[in-house]
Amino acid sequence: MVLEYAPLGLVGVLTPQANTTVEPEMQILLPPGFAHINARLTSPKETMEARLVDYYDTLERSLDQFANAPLQAVAVGCTGASYLVGRNRERALVERWQARAGVPVITTGLAVVDALRAIGARRVGFVSCYPPDLTAASNRYWASHGFEIGEVAGSFNADSDFHPIYSLRAATAAEALATLRGDGHDAVLMLGTGMPTLQPIAAVAGDHGPPVLSCMLCLAWRCVQAMEGRELSPDSVFAWSRGDDWAARLDARTA
């Protein structure tokens, strides 16, 4: 079935309930011919950590929000849950979700793993928008996939009256990113799907530092590769990191 606004593929995106970044960044990142529809991951749990785990525990019900929409992939726009459930359980959950959805289900964590492996990255620097405990869980998750944890620059906003991650601004992320550019990393990863990352990535595109990726960039990249049936090549990751396709749309959106 060919859709008017998604002739090349439609992604169903699952977004944490208060996240204000996933949808606009996905809209910018997806190339022409692709589109997404969104559903919200919700939880009544009181703490951030409990909500993150609950999102994964109840994700099969969240998939029902898409009903019979002709999706070609499902993108889980939440990285923190992967850290907390761990590598092995995440893989088992993905298999179960894919059986339910009938299409590839791509978590942000595994999309990042695929991108880093495609470019042969070993030592990775991180810009973390998380509180210390979740940053530590993040480090354990990436290490479990075989990556060496390099320098970690924090941009956590503990004083926000909205949300400590979703209230972050791109300028704050850019300041943290600048501290990691000369530390011998194979790649730098900007963590989380709630922190705006596209402007900081575009600002360093074409310099001589290591490639800069973000969780949202990797998620969109991986969905497009899945829908196009492409191999995960380093050239494609580098092109996305440079903003070859999406930088002009970012400029138009932020003008």
Model description:
With 255 residues, the protein is an alpha/beta fold. It has two domains: 9-111 and 216-254, 3-Layer(aba) Sandwich (Rossmann fold); 120-213, Rossmann fold, CATH 3.40.50.1860. The chain is built from twelve helices and eight strands. The protein has helices at 22-29, 48-57, 59-63, 80-85, 87-101, 108-118, 132-144, 170-178, 198-204, 215-228, 234-242, 247-254, and strands spanning 9-16, 34-41, 73-76, 105-107, 123-128, 148-154, 187-190, 212-214. It has a four-stranded parallel β-sheet with strand order 2-1-3-4. A four-stranded parallel β-sheet has the order 6-5-7-8, sandwiched between helices. The chain is globular. The termini are far apart.
State the main characteristics.
four-stranded parallel sheet, Rossmann fold, 12 helices, alpha/beta, 255 residues, single chain, 2 domains, 8 strands
Order of helices and strands: EHEHHEHHEHEHEHEHEHHH
Uncertain stretches: 157-170
Q: What name is given to the CATH topology of the largest domain?
A: Rossmann fold
Q: State the distance separating the first and last CA atoms.
A: 35 Å
How many domains comprise the coordinates? 2
Number of distinct helices: 12
What overall form do the CA principal axes indicate? Answer: globular
Describe how the helices and strands are arranged.
Elements: E1 9-16, H1 22-29, E2 34-41, H2 48-57, H3 59-63, E3 73-76, H4 80-85, H5 87-101, E4 105-107, H6 108-118, E5 123-128, H7 132-144, E6 148-154, H8 170-178, E7 187-190, H9 198-204, E8 212-214, H10 215-228, H11 234-242, H12 247-254
Parallel strand pairs: 1-2, 1-3, 3-4, 5-6, 5-7, 7-8
Helix pairs in contact: 1-10, 6-10, 8-9
